[in-house]
Amino acid sequence: MMTQNRKTRRLDSFQKQHMLASLAAILLLAGSLWFSYRFAPVKRSAFSGESEACLVIDPGHGGIDGGAIAYNGQRESELNLSISLKLRDLATFYGIDTRMTRQDEEPRNDYVTYSEREELAYRADFAENTENAVLISIHQNFFPTSQPSGAQVLYGPGAESRRLGELTHANLVQALQPDNRRVAVPAPRDLYLTSHVSCPVILVECGFLSNLTDLQLLSDDQYQKSFAAVLLGSYLQYAQAPSI
Ligand SMILES: [Zn+2]
Q1: FRET pair for 8, CA 20 to 30 Å: which of 67, 106, 162, 177?
Q2: What is the pLDDT of residues 20-30, one digit of tens each?
Q3: pTM
Q4: How many angstroms does the Cα of residue 181 sit away from the middle of ligand 1?
């Protein structure tokens, strides 16, 4: 037990140093992209029309639906919300227009009236009713065994969703998870949210609540900020580059 604890502490120390360096790099990237985004003559060709794109952030689950539950009782919905709020705050700081499908853990329905399908339909409509939306849905993964770890990005139908998904996943690996061997993959057709919106959409599984190292990282405030910074940097890169 002691050996495992020392090993975990050494790992934490190394990972935090790595994360701080990555966060600084990503914020610099986000800052430089922000100036391009705001002032360069390049149009935001990834989006239709003249109006500015809007980053729609969906913290998965919430209310009576806690999502996956870690062995220590940590609810997925709370971690999703915490990372989402950090992403929103960072995006707002950079002058990016944002909307959130939920902003707290308060239930919109009680147990009797709650329907997962209706909740997902509400969130899909929320994005559909937002002009020039780009939707990022934030979740945590879970597996029956503790081995699987690392982030995984799922992207919705269409080339724009794929471009955003591959870009985001590559940035997460480079900045935060150099040992992550996963790749961005198309979301399954039966994944309601990604299948019921017409805007660019990705679903980010930030890590596995069933993996102890992932759970420690995902519960860490600084790691959550780093994760949010990578998501914002990826969104800005996506918005700046010409569409396919
Ligand atoms: Zn989830």
Answers
A1: 67
A2: 555 555 655 65
A3: 0.83
A4: 21
